[in-house]
Amino acid sequence: MATQIFVNLPVKDLNKSIEFFTSLGYTFNPQFTNEVAASLVISDTIYFMLVTEPFFKTFTKKEIADATQVTETINCISLDSREAVDEMIAKAVAAGATTPNDKQDHGWMYGWGFQDLDGHLWEFAYMDMSHLPG
């Protein structure tokens, strides 16, 4: 079995988060989705567990970071083209996200990101390894 990653993110309104990520073209695994958590499928090996804040608090004794005020992480996902990056950001903005940073174009690597409804930062990148410097 391939190594998988499950990133847990606290969310204020699970239904709004599900609606937001569905509008970006993502799906959810119903086996791991209920009223307190939803399994956002990025790929066959990458999943984000969107967890309601009260349920998330049962996993840690620490305070939950307010991602609208502090950066707790930047979740970066690769896409197949520059156009796919731009399309993803356009969908996210149309669904209520904001773009806190400008596009980054380094020739061989292109990226742009958004801040989701809960303030989590997401980056999407395209890398053309045939033009990798050095």
From TrEMBL:
Keywords on record: Dioxygenase, Oxidoreductase
InterPro entries given in the database record: Glyas_Bleomycin-R_OHBP_Dase (IPR029068), Glyoxy/Ble-like_N (IPR053863), VOC_core (IPR037523)
Chain ranges of the VOC domain: 3-127
Leader sequence segment: none
Example of a GO MF term: dioxygenase activity
PANTHER family recorded: BLR2408 PROTEIN, BLR2520 PROTEIN
Name of protein: Glyoxalase/bleomycin resistance/extradiol dioxygenase family protein
Taxonomic source organism: Mucilaginibacter ginsenosidivorax
Taxonomic classification: Bacteria, Pseudomonadati, Bacteroidota, Sphingobacteriia, Sphingobacteriales
